[in-house]
Amino acid sequence: MTDSSSPPPAPTVPPAAPSKPRREQIHEVASRLFSERGYHATSMRDLAGQLGMQGGSLYAHIASKDELLIGIVDRAARQFDGALFTLRGDSLPAPEKIREAMHRHIRVVADNMESATVFFHEWKHLSPEAYTRVTNWRDTIDAFYRDLVIQGIREGSLRPDLDPKMTANLILSAVNWAYTWYRPGGSMTPRDVAEKYADMLLGGLQAAPKLAAPEQP
Amino acid sequence: MTDSSSPPPAPTVPPAAPSKPRREQIHEVASRLFSERGYHATSMRDLAGQLGMQGGSLYAHIASKDELLIGIVDRAARQFDGALFTLRGDSLPAPEKIREAMHRHIRVVADNMESATVFFHEWKHLSPEAYTRVTNWRDTIDAFYRDLVIQGIREGSLRPDLDPKMTANLILSAVNWAYTWYRPGGSMTPRDVAEKYADMLLGGLQAAPKLAAPEQP
DNA sequence: ACCCACACCAAACGCCCGTTAGGTGACGCG
DNA sequence: CGCGTCACCTAACGGGCGTTTGGTGTGGGT
Q: CATH 1.10.357.10: does it fit domain A64-203?
């Protein structure tokens, strides 16, 4: 912006500037429609109609309907990845790490309700390669939480009788299921949800932890 | 199976015996296909093919594809209802009641994996009346768990600082999400899953609850 | 023997699907 | 002005969809 000596920056054909807005608009609207109605119940003409164009015109910007789905699901997976895997290096005790992981996980869901919903509902309809890619990726997320529990048991911060697989399942149930009920406009932030969930999960629901003593004052 | 002492029960035209096996077969295969591929990705010709017949022949037994979906979803809802609402009267303390409810809930999911999957995935595609019916029904399930938590707080068996809505959400996350990972042939029975989940939820994941030494000895 | 209900088939209906092909107007550059 | 590019449109393609219609063979009842 400050240089006045150079010529206008190649206005003829931007050589490597494929970041046009229209393609992103299509992906955004597709996320919304796929999450609201489902992949197979959304037609390309529906999608085009929401963008004020005809069905066939979409193909000037995208290659196919499958490609749209793959793009949305991959994007969601990358969001989870980016949020969670920076935690691997941290040296927090396991309970804090679980709390933080739940917070980030729920935040990704909350900030990407539409693509997260598509991710959880439509991954079965991906093309075979994308399908196995997503399946393998999910296994690494499972392993992430499982390892986190194992670490906690080893360091003594988590109960030693925990089943790591089932504990990871329980944590994942809590954070994933949020896509069915969380509403971004509501009164709870993702942090609120994560804090409440982590408090309940780590501390337990029961009132008296183990008061073996007679409770006469 | 019916009765062996009475004469053959009106063999000419069973006047009100619509419980033919074929209709049930169709519903069963439809449950399987809808749960595996999704409602919109399953065609009536697919369904008929699995039963060794032509697409049009289905309509001698059923009225429409929508009716099939409604039947499957309603059946699943009735299973949950029958399992949970007999608990309303019981006078157990809340932790036992939560444990038992989770057990029954997970057992319904495990014993009806296919229709439960259809229920959780395809309820958005129901006809408007069935849609609102299912939505309202889900609210009553939410309320059931919420009331259960409120009861526990009142009677002092659950932590007084619990948010009943969020606690019910957490319990429902655990038991509902089971449809995504539970496999009936595996090593865990629904009871095993429910016991582990209830232990973790009620008792908490953390090792040392809070070594009771707030006062100086 | 007749009859009729039954379970199913073969073919078609109208409609919508994802996708492609060719055309049209606007715009910026030489 | 001429040219190319871009975003989009109109129209169509082949095919699959849910569903309907008019048979056809079979088997038990009278």
A: yes
State which nucleotides on strand D lie below 7 Å from a protein beta carbon.
Answer: 5-12, 16-22, 28-30
* Assigned architecture for domain A18-62: Orthogonal Bundle (1.10)
Look at residue A206 and give its three-state secondary structure: strand
State the residue for tokens 């077969």: B25
Q: Å from A188 (CA) to D20 (C1')?
A: 53
Burial class (CB in 10 A: 0-12, 13-18, 19+), A216: exposed
Q: Are B125 and B39 in contact (CB under 8 A)?
A: yes
Ordered alpha helix ranges (H), A38-163: 44-50, 65-84, 94-111, 113-122, 128-155
**Per-residue pLDDT reduced to its tens digit, B64-120:** 999 999 999 999 999 999 999 899 988 899 999 999 999 999 999 999 999 999 999
- What tens digit of pLDDT does each residue of B125-138 get? 999 999 999 999 99
Q: Specify the fold of B19-62.
A: Arc Repressor Mutant, subunit A (1.10.10)
Residue of B nearest to A93 (CA): B206
Residue B56 CA to nucleotide C10 C1', Å?
A: 10
Q: Do A167 and B200 touch (CB under 8 A)?
A: yes
Judge whether A44 and A64 are in contact, CB under 8 Å.
Answer: no
The span from the CA of A107 to the CA of A136, in Å, is 22
Chain A partners within 8 Å of B173 (Cβ) = 173-174, 176-178
CA of B42 to C1' of C9 (A): 22
